[in-house]
Amino acid sequence: MLKIGTIGASLGALMMTAAAPAKTHKEANAEAIAAAKPDGKPESCIPIRSIRETRVRSDSIIDFFTYGKKVYRVTLPQSCPRLGFEEAFSYSTSLSQLCSTDIITVLNRSGGGINGPSCGMGEFQPVTGLGR
Questions:
Q1: Cα→Cα distances 84→6, 25, 29, 56, Å
Q2: Are 54 and 48 spatial neighbours (Cβ–Cβ below 8 Å)?
Q3: Contact (CB, 8 A) for 46 and 97
Q4: Cα 60 to Cα 55: distance, rounded to the nearest angstrom
Q5: Which residues, including other chains, have CB under 8 Å from residue 87's CB and lie 6 or more apart?
Q6: Mean pLDDT, residues 51-69
Q7: DSSP string, the chain
Q8: pLDDT of residue 60
Q9: 68 class by beta-carbon count within 10 Å (0-12 exposed, 13-18 middle, 19+ buried)
Q10: pLDDT tens for each residue of 84-132
Q11: In Å, how far are 27, 38, 95 from 125, measured between CA atoms?
């Protein structure tokens, strides 16, 4: 009988967990924007080879996750239309670094072969509170 009670309690907990609504992508990005706290002085450039992953949070915020487990937040000086929607961008540089003076171009993932606007970057502000 103890086993049945344990299974019933476990199933009840599982059903309550499954009933909880999942966060939308927009909600998760809003939480990440709020969670980041500055951690040191902004940097003008970071080595391209150190970038592990980028996450576009909005039309003006991009988080850069490095292999060294640091996270840098770039807040663009101007909003970059469709960046938050497409969540994809490209850049071109002749250096081995990505710098605050570089330009990114929004990639149109929905097809058509036409890229979106090009926008100026900003400084790389080290942040904490994002995990991973």
A1: 46, 11, 10, 6
A2: no
A3: yes
A4: 12
A5: 55, 56, 109
A6: 95
A7: -HHHHHHHHHHHHHHHHHHSPPPPHHHHHHHHHHH-EE-S--BSEEEGGGEEEEEE-SSSEEEEEETTS-EEEEE-SS--TTHHHH--EEE--SSSEEETT-EEEE--TTSSS----EEE---EEEEESS--
A8: 97
A9: exposed
A10: 999 999 998 888 999 999 999 999 987 777 889 999 999 999 999 876 5
A11: 22, 7, 20
Question: What pLDDT, in 10s, does the model give residues 10-52?
Answer: 334 433 444 556 667 667 666 666 667 878 999 999 999 999 9
Decide if pLDDT at 65 tops 90: yes
Two tokens, residue 44? 């003008």
Strand partners of residue 53: 65
Place of tokens 């391209």: 48
Read off the pTM.
0.77
